[in-house]
Amino acid sequence: MGEVWRPHVTVAAVIEREGRFLFVEEETEFGVRLNQPAGHWEPGESLVDAVVRETLEESRLRFAPNAVVGVYHWTRPDGALTYLRFAFSGKVTGEEPDRALDEGILRTLWLLPEEVEAAGREGRLRSPMVLACVRDWREGRRYSLDLIRYLAG
């Protein structure tokens, strides 16, 4: 029997403040890249819980999601991995400045939309999903958190 295909399910926080978007600069297998606070959905979590956790771990910021920006499907050009990303928008509700950043996270940045676009052109974004999330947010795409239904086992 062949290998079972399993996409990597991830979450991302699209956070805008005063015209700038929260990003993390992170070490990847392809070099230093920019990404929203994002990461893998873990067993036992809701998607909302996952994005709250990932945002705190990668940025030291407490995040309160209030909408779904979109769901994104992307396969790496080498075909090695396929991702399914759930992106959420919301507000920062606090900070834990003494908390250590996740391994591989170098720093947080607040970038203007044109800086994000330039990073995309220069190949400095983690994936095309990163820019798609910002563009969708700027176009006003917001869906109720009720879009995601959790059913008991």
UniProtKB/TrEMBL annotation:
Pfam family, any one: NUDIX
Sequence intervals crossing the membrane: none
Record key words, sorted: Hydrolase, Magnesium
Source taxon at top rank: Bacteria
Enzyme Commission number(s) from the entry: 3.6.1.-
An MF annotation (GO) of this entry: nucleoside diphosphate phosphatase activity
Keyword Hydrolase: yes
Top-level class of the enzyme under EC nomenclature: hydrolase
InterPro entries cross-referenced by the UniProt entry: NUDIX_hydrolase-like_dom_sf (IPR015797), NUDIX_hydrolase_CS (IPR020084), NUDIX_hydrolase_dom (IPR000086), NudJ (IPR033713)
Domain Nudix hydrolase: 4-149
Reported cofactor(s): Mg(2+)
Family membership noted in the UniProt record: Belongs to the Nudix hydrolase family. NudJ subfamily.
The protein's assembly and partners: Monomer.
Protein name: Phosphatase NudJ
Species of the source: Tepidiphilus thermophilus
